User: Fold these one by one.
Assistant:
Number 1:
Amino acid sequence: MPLVNTKEMFKKAYAEGYAIGAFNVNNMEIVQGITEACQELKAPVILQVSAGARKYANHTYLRKLVEAAVIECPDIPIALHLDHGASFELCKDCIDGGFTSVMFDGSSKPYEENVEEARKVAEYAHKYGVTVEAELGKLAGIEDDVNVDAENAQFTDPGEVQDFVTRTGVDSLAIAIGTSHGAYKFKPGQKPKLRLDILQEVSERLPGFPIVLHGASSVPQQFVQEVNQYGGQMPDAIGIPEEMLREAAKMAVCKINIDSDLRLAMTASVRKYLAENPSHFDPRQYLAPARTAIKDMVAHKIQTVLGCAGKA
Ligand code: G3H
Ligand code: 13P
Ligand code: ZN
């Protein structure tokens, strides 16, 4: 099946109480690891590309890699999504360049500017059958060199969501309920907490409307230990507990964004391989196990967090 937008994926996910994994892709091994797991488990998937990924790997290379995955994985719906599009121009570029879904991220702009630009993106995107995600509220963490510290992060105000969605016409909404970007989501000793009460209130104000969770990596401790054991330095890396994400996926959350866990799986595997095989220098030797580590991690996520196995 050809690349799809997120409309039908989210409709089904909402109705059946599961979420679609949205995984960031930056190179071939990442695309392959993710989609092999999804194909085997018959799980729909969103492959997302950030502005940084486009800068690193080039739009066309990434799009062609994803198109190759569509051919190799004929049984599953795959959407190609722009992650954190900071402007109308960037969103337009991706819509014109074959993406089937875009995020316009105006979360750091004043409310009215966010509304106006998201509306413009939705109007343009919908002409081409492309779905649009927007964001209200501010997550802590780092994305594309923008660093929002915990003090400047803000939970989404449920009082704004109806006005925002009605005026912009977007198809899904990312909200801030305590997740954050990166591998350091909570301080050691701090009890991880998600404001599922805010999610509940948002979904009461937007019945049937798909909600998105960014910053949703769980930072599996076996990867952190492996990184640290083989020469890395990631003390106190902590993520969102899997059971909290599962809870959110049973509610209105239809898309769960994961990037840091991919980075960790890959880095832990490469560090271990090179430490144990110091004479090897063929990249295929260390990238093959890294790709398998991604595949296993994604399979685990589909089964325990997302609940989307067999939903293709
Ligand atoms: O939310 C941000 C994603 O992890 C993408 O990160 O901008 O470094 O590619 P990046
Ligand atoms: P993580 O850093 O938790 O993986 O979040 C990724 C993300 O939100 C991409 O948009
Ligand atoms: Zn994000």
Number 2:
Amino acid sequence: MEKVIVRYAPSPTGIPHIGNIRTALYNFLLAKSQKGKFILRIEDTDRKRFVPESVKAIEDSLKVLGLNWDEVYRQSERLSIYQRDLELLSKKGLAYEDSGAWRFKVEKGKKLEWTDLVHGQVEFTADVIEDFVVVKSDGYPTYHFASVVDDHELKISHVLRGDEWISSTPKHLLLYQAFCWNPPQFIHVPAILGPDKKKLSKREGARSVLEYIEDGYLPEALVNFLAFLGWSPKGDKELFTLDELTSEFSTERLNKNSPIFNLEKLNWFNKKYLAKYTPKNLLSQVRKFSKKAKSEEDERLAMIINLIRDRMTTLADFDKYSGIFFEKGEEPPPPKEKARQAKEAVEKIENWDEKTIEESLEKYIKESNLNPSDFKNTLRLAVFADNTPPIYQSLAVLDKSEVISRIEEAIKKAK
Ligand code: GLU
């Protein structure tokens, strides 16, 4: 079988959004699932629309998700190849000069068809195609020309791209025929739509992968989410690492219908991946998002993460739910008598660890004949003055001395 070689071919005209990166992901998965090659090709021949920063944004977006490419090319460095092939066309009488540009001569009446791996049989007639420019007057090739020449040069076996390129494919086929080259397989994947079934807007989610990362989404969650926007595996399993996606991926399971972007689903994936990590493995990720976490020691930070992560949706939520471990909340203190009792109970605890705290407070509740939930509420108000995760575990995060001084402060304030 022919080796699978694919390319992700972005035009560096801006910051790639998740729809573009989904195309890159599918290319990566197609290549890697077949032990093939994944090429990054920067299509920078439109000098007017070229945005230099976007090359780095493209590379960073791929890297952060682990979509490492095997080879990289820039079309602006390959002008001699396009020039050579333009001469070939013109020698065959299939290209002519017009106002300083070169046009391809379209033979009318031709039927152009291909079997698309997503859309099935697709047909066009050349009658609707004008003689199109292949090399512009500035000497740079057009997208159509450079793309076909490079796909041939780089031995691309499958062209997987967004379906907005379907109407360009007949032009590409004309070029393949003119050169007597075999075209690759075409796979046009439907665009991701917004909840209103229209083109996904920036507000609805068409943002860059890097922005999602900055918002506290995990790369694994983004990869999993993007993979499922237009593809599905065989069974019901939903959580797939990049490696698992690679073994599962096949073009047959790419969807014909446009997927709808759903932020709730991304949030769901992110929560799942937050839960999958051990708190220790989340330390450095959390520290990127929180000043407080930065100056916190590993062990205590891991305890906090462990207690609050099922409430967090993104890494950026750390500060929102961890506040009580750094500063008391706003709720009023419990009655003085009850607060005094809480202090006495805490003072009796001999070893300051979760297990001993629980055993010893439970014992105190029994011996003093207290209502357990009322006593826990007293502790909550006196120490945290806000909602908390399970109270005994929450107490264990603080030092004993801090718990006592927080209670003393409550006693002072209480009536
Ligand atoms: N440069 C085109 C883009 O920006 C590539 C289309 C293709 O993959 O052929 O999407």
Number 3:
Amino acid sequence: MPDTWKLKDKNFNKYLLDKDIQTKVSELATRINIDLDGQTPLFIVVLNGAFIFASDLLKKVTIDCEIAFVKLSSYQGTQSSGVVQQIIGLDLDIKGRTIVVIEDIVDTGLTLDRFLETLRVMEPAKVLVAACLLKPDAFSSKFPIDYLCFSIPNEFVVGYGLDYDGLGRNSGDIYKIVEE
Ligand code: 5GP
């Protein structure tokens, strides 16, 4: 992919390289394979943004596991709307299960916080979180992120599944917005 990318009215610079992301994803998978061996975890992939991260991660998870998908949303354009909507729900019984929620990016944490609350009501044995990216300066929630690839500044990014108004998901590299 090129070093700069124009998506609609915004310019983006290449920020995290595909190969460096893959190295981190492999490290996370190795840790998960060790930590959760024998627990047959259920991975819950938060769509849409986590689809590439989850695919890369789960191809490297070698322990027995199940995979489910849920769709949540609190973003419009480059701003969090603050309103969390669960669009596609979860129809599995998770009581007593080890759950790993796979998220693309944790910003304020609001989206995931609400979802984790919903899961806890369903009495899983434990709920862990795997995220590709975290913006620590925006994070205002309390839940731990058990498996994380990168902490990044509080700036808008695209690529590796993340979009700007629907565009930009189809890149192995991650791009950061150029503030003008
Ligand atoms: P939060 O509820 O943690 O504030 O927002 C989480 C969701 O907002 C993420 O799952 C993602 O969909 C979206 N989001 C947060 N920051 C970014 C960003 O920098 N770029 C993109 N494309 N989406 C983001």
Number 4:
Amino acid sequence: MERKDDGRLEGRTAIVTGSTYGIGEAIAKVLSSEGAISIITGRTEKEGERVAEEIKTAGGSAEYHHLNVTDEEEVAEVTRAVYEKYGRIDILVNNAGIGGPSKPTHEYTREEWERVFDVNVTGAFLCSKNVIPYMKKGGGGNIVYISSIYGIVGSQDNPAYHATKAANRIMAKTGANIYAKDKIRVNSVHPGFIWTPLVEDFLKDQSEKLGVAIEDLRSELDAAHPIGHIGEPEDIAYGVLYLVSDEAKFVTGTELIIDGGYTSR
Ligand code: NAP
């Protein structure tokens, strides 16, 4: 994705959690194509360095930091390092997330349940908690929680995932209320199914359990979206770009659904 001149996010620093691949990678690339300095984070160094290099090759600015969002010390270290280097943190996208086991509630162990909460809820909390003081020092900022359509409607899959994504939705609304006076806008984005390693793994798991071919499951998933197919990571990234740009200066506490019509039924 080529870097544009005079981008909408010129010189702003953007931390995108879980941007080593999947939706986070696309978000980091779209933000840097509009002039942001993208801070690529995640646990897979090789992939993080790849994303940062690809952004730089396209004329943008990026650097990779190892970050496990459940490690409070590491979150504090990375946010401090970014602030000390750039003097500001303008954007945080809480994107890192896991699906967790797809099975009914009564079959979940407490450990499995807490693992999903640890990454999807506590991880997002820790990142917001550490970034907000820097945003306040800088006179404002933008936080986006990547929730899901599963934070809005129920299904027969992943009960822990549903609960965490609903938590992300309300974390954004609460943050919007608390930090409006500090000029920090907080919003959530709710993707429908997007083709990434997370969905690929989910379909593999379902295929083994149900004995149905992955291609058939993929067709079913496509048909569940009125638009006729599942989405691409960039579909979500452009929604995030809008929310963190000045064009959305009156937008806070909102939930942007990008789902090919899935929840419109
Ligand atoms: P993905 O392909 O599995 O990518 C997940 C990203 O999160 C990776 O960069 C991974 O990096 C990172 N991550 C996982 N655990 C982490 C941890 N403990 N600390 C830091 N980073 C961690 O998933 P995706 O589909 O892109 O999903 C991204 C977000 O969108 C998630 O919050 C997901 O719930 C949400 N979402 C996805 C869909 C979909 O259909 N794909 C739909 C709705 C919502 P490392 O492995 O390098 O750490």
